[in-house]
Specification:
It is a single chain. The two termini are 22 Å apart. Helix 1 packs antiparallel against helix 16 and helix 15 runs parallel beside helix 16. This protein is an alpha/beta fold. The radius of gyration is 21 Å and the shape is globular. The strands form 3 sheets. Strands 1-2-3-4-5-7-9-10 form an 8-stranded parallel barrel, surrounded by 6 helices. It has a two-stranded parallel ribbon with strand order 6-8. It contains 17 helices and 12 strands. Bound molecules: beta-D-fucopyranose. The site of beta-D-fucopyranose has 12 residues, from loops. The site of beta-D-fucopyranose (FCB) has 12 residues, from loops.
């Protein structure tokens, strides 16, 4: 029985026993391990039409009837743009010393090219100053899906020129903030941008073409490489990396065809990104499978993509199961699922990490997102979210297993600080360790937030 199973099995745990188990869990990590919380700009900031910010592809996507489950948008979201000081007070009150957030490109460069918006940069100046005052490290993501709409009208990520525009944007952000960033990640989850945004069309910009999607994936990787190259030549001191969503993919049965399918889906989700980033090549089996849908790759692109990384960010939520004849890989709800319908499968995290460690020359790894949505309700000023606590605890336990296995993991960020705009699900899914009342914008720390505080204290 591992640590978290022991904790769950013994419901009669006294507080003293609980804190002993928490301490044991914490002690499985090195003392300098980074513990944080994560957010992204469009999901929390609001102020969508203030201080010179222009539309992103998500503002436009939200206007399409039926695109967002509850018909909502990020216009106000958590109103973090105006409430960030109080939000940072909450972060500090929980003893959290690392904060991951993204910069909204259309806030700082409304058209995605040309003029910079000083008022937009001023917001991030205030945010960084607020973090610094509270002793909280800033982990910056440059692109968490909110492409300036003006660039989309010129083809968006399907247009190679967007990769160059991204490099210029990255350079300007690094010039201003590079000395205050604990890390800079170029992209968050390029698979999601490419596949959900351009093949399945369930996310902005809502295109439905595999061929376009794979070209987009290539341009995202290219833009990562261009940005890393440019930032390094400009002398940027912040550690540079990229954040990928990954999952181990299990064949539904041991049949030849399910195993083939699982291998291919692994190629599309994991190897399509890892192989070019770390080996400078695309996986042969996936190229063969894509046929005419394979992207156009110019000479030298793969060398640009394959830049040394200071860190690799991984977002992990669940495993996938591959079933022959079924278009989409699904997580399999044979076990408890979260409110997203995603299977709770902590062992997938250790398995994924140990596999990556075996197959690739990994730089230090950060889990940049891990967390769960549940239907939370405040009752008498309290949000009892025991399922989220056990989700977090079991995944941190699985992460400790990966550390024991020898994977060089340097940090872990809970998704998310606040309940927020969950993309196509609107406000219907709550991932926060802090509850947000969208009527009043009031915040209530959930039990999981206090649990995280106690866990961090027990180190
Ligand atoms: C990830 C996203 C993040 C959030 C979580 C639930 O794919 O990076 O913004 O939506 O899923």
């Amino acid at each position: 029985m591992n640590h978290s199973e022991a904790l769950q099995a013994d419901t009669s745990n006294s507080d003293a026993q609980r804190s002993l188990l928490l301490k044991r869990l914490a002690q499985r990590f090195p003392a300098d391990f980074v513990w944080g919380v994560a957010t992204s700009a469009y999901q929390i900031e609001g102020a969508a039409h203030e201080d010179g910010r222009a539309d992103s592809i998500w503002d436009e996507f939200c206007r399409r009837p039926g695109a967002i489950r509850d018909g909502s948008n990020g216009d106000r979201a958590c109103d973090h743009y105006h409430r960030f000081e109080a939000d940072l007070d909450l972060v500090a009150s929980l003893g959290i010393t690392s904060y991951r957030f993204s910069i909204s490109w259309p806030r700082v460069q409304p058209l995605g090219r040309g003029a910079w918006n000083q008022a937009g940069f001023a917001f991030y100046e205030r945010l960084l100053a607020g973090l610094q005052r509270r002793g909280i490290a800033a982990h910056i993501t440059l692109y968490h899906w909110d492409l300036p709409l003006a660039l989309q009208t010129q083809g968006g990520w399907a247009n190679r020129a967007t990769a160059e525009a991204f490099r210029d944007y990255a350079l300007e952000v690094a010039r201003r903030f590079g000395d205050r960033a604990a890390s800079i990640a170029t992209h968050n989850e390029p698979w999601v941008v490419a596949i959900l945004g351009h093949e399945l069309g369930t996310f902005a910009p809502g295109e439905k073409s595999r061929r376009v999607a794979m070209q987009v994936a290539h341009h995202l990787l290219l833009s990562h490489g261009l940005a890393v190259q440019a930032l390094r030549s400009a002398g940027c001191k912040a550690p540079l990396g990229i954040v990928l969503n990954q999952a181990p993919i299990y064949p539904a049965t041991e049949s030849e065809s399910d195993r083939f399918k699982a291998r291919l889906e692994d190629g599309l989700l994991v190897r399509w990104y890892m192989d070019p980033l770390l080996f400078g090549r695309y996986p042969e089996d996936v190229l063969a499978h894509l046929g005419d849908d394979a992207p156009a790759v110019a000479d030298g692109d793969l060398d640009i993509i394959c830049q040394p990384l200071d860190f690799l960010g991984i977002n992990y939520y669940t495993r996938n199961v591959a079933v022959t004849g079924q278009e989409k890989v699904e997580s399999r709800p044979s076990r408890p699922v979260t409110d997203m319908g995603w299977e709770v499968f902590p062992g997938g995290l250790s398995e994924l990490l140990s596999r990556l460690h075996r197959d690739y020359p990994l730089p230090p790894v950060y889990i940049m997102e891990n967390g769960a949505a549940y239907k939370d309700h405040p009752v008498g000023g309290r949000v009892v979210d025991s399922e989220r606590i056990s989700y977090l605890e079991s995944h941190i336990g699985a992460l400790a297993d990966a550390v024991d296995y020898g994977v060089e993991v340097h940090g872990y960020f809970v998704w998310s600080l606040l309940d927020n705009f969950e993309w196509a699900d609107g406000y219907s899914k709550r991932f926060g360790i802090i509850y947000v009342d969208y009527e009043t914008e009031g915040r209530t720390v959930k039990d999981s937030g206090f649990w995280y505080r106690d866990f961090l204290r027990s180190r």
